[in-house]
Amino acid sequence: MELNDVLAEVRATVGTVTTGVVTSAIPALARVDPHRFGMAFAGVDGEVVGVGDWDEAFSVQSVSKVFSLALVLAHDGEALWTRVRRQPSVHRFNSLSELDGDCGIPRNPFVNAGALVVTDRLLGITGHAKESVLALLLTESGGGPYVDHAVAADEQAHNHRNSAIAHLIADHGNLHHPVEDVLAHYTGHCAIAATCGQLATAALFLARGGIRANGERLLSAADTTRLNATLLTCGTYDAAGDFAYSVGLPAKSGIGGGILAVIPGRGILCAWGPALDTHGNSVAATLALSTFTSITGWSIF
Ligand code: GLN
Fold it and tell me: Record's family (predicted)?
């Protein structure tokens, strides 16, 4: 079956999803039409195909955590894992539970607590975490992604929970920059807007064993495998078990409704639908990805 036909069948299966709720955490995102849907596949050979609203920019939110983590792993390697663990969490992505008992060492790099530590480390490496994540997205996608400053400002104005998480980590000595700086850079890279096609293309290094668009190496093959393993176990938060069961791919979700999924050796999928389930994962994107892997058999299992 041709990829375009697979995507057409996925679109028909997803239809107009009527379950799920658009995030209310960030007012600027609460206004997005819940019926938007798009999906793109970027192949390791350069082929990019899409369906629906795959060329419309949306707020990447936590999908940006893949790129911040990749930059830190590229620099620090194993040393990062003294500051953040690699265990799935049974709590929501923005939970404060476990942090205090775990001495401010977050459960994994994809829950908000862990991503704040990663952003703090990226600030230490490059001096400007938000710009570094955007630069990686721009070079790997070939252009297009941008920071939506209205979304960033809106989240900053409603950031009590992330602020509490960051202060608790700082109290345990696991933040090395001022809490306000870490929050501003974290919120800034979450507020990057990109299309499904751009995001899928930008993440191709994860399907190519760590090799960037220009042929240079970003990550070692081993670190790429391990990043993908962490995505499988932690990338969709406390629903990672169900996601692995139904989709079978390493993936990262965001409350903007995007989900990026890695098919090692083949390519990257990115699906977008703004309405979320109770775990904060897109209902339409999850259904689209599970339909895609059911048709193609391209899960990692
Ligand atoms: N910026 C959002 C937050 O920090 C990202 C959460 C998400 O996409 N799951 O809560």
Answer: Belongs to the glutaminase family.
